[in-house]
Amino acid sequence: MKPTYHYATVLKAIEELRQKGFTEDFNLHENCLICSTGKFEAEDFEISHIYYYEGESNPDDEATVYGIESKSGTKGILVTGDEQDIDPMSQRIVDKLLVSRKRD
């Protein structure tokens, strides 16, 4: 079971993950995650922490912070806004992120 902590802000969640060793910054890129140490397909990583934030008055203020661990040991963070606005090329990765978020 994934830890389910809730922090007041996205910044606080990122700071806590950094303290836990999640040092890489992941980005979505053509149906994979990339960071300074490499490229990861959907099957190459697991999501170990999820923090979801909804805007109180504006749905555009939503954000999700993911703590991600690759099978090779790379630990990092991915922050997304509204997943519906993400490039269709990254849909496989987004699907994995959304499934993980719904399980928590």
Count up the domains: 1
Ends distance: 8 Å
The major β-sheet equals: 4 strands, mixed
Number of strands: 7
Mean pLDDT: 80
- Helix content range: 10-25%
Which word captures the global form? globular
Identify low-pLDDT runs.
none
Rg (C-alpha, Å): 13 Å
Number of helical segments with 4 or more residues: 2
Strand order of the largest sheet: 1-7-6-5
Q: Please identify the structural class as seen in this structure.
A: alpha+beta
User: What is the percentage of strand-forming residues?
Assistant: 25-35%
The H/E string reads HEEEEEEEH
Would you mind describing this structure in some detail?
It comes from Flavobacterium alkalisoli. This is Phosphoribosylpyrophosphate synthetase. With 104 residues, this protein is of the alpha+beta class. The chain has one domain. Strands 1-7-6-5 form a 4-stranded mixed beta sheet, with helices on both faces. Strands 2-3-4 form a 3-stranded antiparallel beta sheet, with no helix packed on it. The protein starts with 9 loop residues before the first helix and ends with a helix. The longest helix is centred in the C-terminal third of the chain and has 13 residues. The model has no long low-confidence stretch (mean pLDDT 80). 22% of the residues lie in helices and 34% in strands. The protein has 2 helices and 7 strands.
